[in-house]
Amino acid sequence: RVSKPGPVALPNAEGIKLTEAIQFAGGFAPSAKQDAIRVSRTEPGGKKIQVTVDYQKIGTAGNARADLSLMSGDIIYVPERMF
Questions:
Q1: Smallest Cα–Cα separation from 54: which of 23, 33, 70, 75?
Q2: Which of 17, 19, 54, 83 falls 20 to 30 Å from 62 in CA-CA distance?
Q3: What DSSP designation does 28 have?
Q4: Closest residue by Cα to residue 67 from 24, 15, 29
Q5: CB-CB contact of 2 with 22 (8 Å)
């Protein structure tokens, strides 16, 4: 649920923040569920992990430490909120 869904080429993907990646994808669509963003990652050694991020805690609450640093190959999923 971003304005430009699909693969996004990021300059220097290592260390880029989740908020920056969402901006590269055109920002949130009106139907985005911003409090349940999922980031999937395959760690060295092949272990797959998934983290849920509440974007509201980053932006509205001003908690910059909640802004996840991304790694090459991470997949970001912004779900649709139910009306």
A1: 33
A2: 83
A3: B
A4: 15
A5: yes
* Cβ neighbour number for residue 68 with a 10 Å cutoff: 19
75 φ/ψ angles, rounded to the nearest 5 degrees: -120, 125
Q: How far is CA 9 from CA 2, 12, 43, 57, in A?
A: 15, 9, 20, 26
Amino acid at 74: D
Global pTM value:
0.83
Cα 61 off chain centre by: 17
Residue 49: DSSP 8-state: E
Q: What are phi and psi of 18, to 5 degrees?
A: -55, -45
